[in-house]
Amino acid sequence: MATQDLVQLAQHDGVLLVTINRPEVRNAINYDCAVALAQAFERLDEDPALRLGVVTGAGKGFSAGMDLKDFAKSGVRPRVPKRGFAGLTDMPPTKPLIAAVEGFALAGGFEIVLACDMVVAARDAKFGLPEVKRGLLAGAGGLLRLPRRLPYPIAMEMILTGDPVSAEQAHRYGLINELTEPGQALQAAMALAGRISENGPLAIAAAKRIVNEGLDWSQQDMFAKQEPMIAPILASQDAREGALAFAEKRKPLWQGK
């Protein structure tokens, strides 16, 4: 399969839909697929017409993680320099990313989900980090991000047992934004993306940056660190347009400036 076929891209009203397209191997990630994903996320960041992305998997599941058979044969890990596993986990895009999950998101597939900002999942989907069952560790962000998303005891149970949890359990823990009926996750994720894409593109990207970086800021200096990120937004043409549109009772015409 050609590299460009391993990941399918579609653009809808400022939303880039990224589909992992290896259903014959449960959307497991090999090196070529990781490169294609990295290119997709670079496009998301670089194209001013795009405001956020949605990532999903073709067929019956999201992703089973690293393609172990391909790795055993080639010895090449599906990591892209600087960007990490699947071209994503070490350096997610600066613009928001939503995971639309059907079926399963396991091992590296779950780590892809954890690198996203929001999650929409079918009720029958499963999430898990089974690496310890194979004597391995979830080194593409699972050990680092899961305790930030879930209560510590729940995250530790998932990590140390390797047992999966259902989407309904994950939703109760706050990991998932919205549950859908099977087969409806992508539709719901695109609807959520559509609601976000109506907002100011500069503000969307800056809000994500402040939230993510602010997790590590101390209370003493968090406002000082936030200010230089907020100031350019307040001085932008989009901020003025947003205020005018509100006063004139119309939809704003964003320019990303």
What does this structure look like?
The chain is of the alpha/beta class and 257 residues long. The protein has 2 domains: 3-197, 2-enoyl-CoA Hydratase, Chain A, domain 1; 201-248, Lyase 2-enoyl-coa Hydratase, Chain  A, domain 2. 43% of the residues lie in helices and 17% in strands. It contains 11 helices and 11 strands. It has helices spanning 3-6, 31-46, 68-74, 108-114, 142-149, 152-161, 167-172, 185-197, 201-214, 222-234, 237-248, and strands spanning 7-12, 15-20, 52-57, 79-80, 84-85, 97-101, 104-106, 118-122, 126-128, 165-166, 178-180. A 6-stranded mixed β-sheet has the order 1-2-3-6-8-11, sandwiched between helices. Strands 7-9-10 form a 3-stranded mixed β-sheet. The protein has a two-stranded antiparallel sheet with strand order 4-5. Helix 4 crosses helix 5 (142-149), helix 5 (142-149) runs antiparallel to helix 6 (152-161) and helix 9 (201-214) runs antiparallel to helix 10. The mean pLDDT is 95.
How far apart, in Å, are the first and last alpha carbons?
40 Å
Q: Major sheet: order of its strands?
A: 1-2-3-6-8-11
Secondary structure class reads alpha/beta
Average pLDDT works out at 95
Low-confidence stretches: none
* Helix content class: 40-55%
In CATH, the topology of the largest domain is named 2-enoyl-CoA Hydratase, Chain A, domain 1
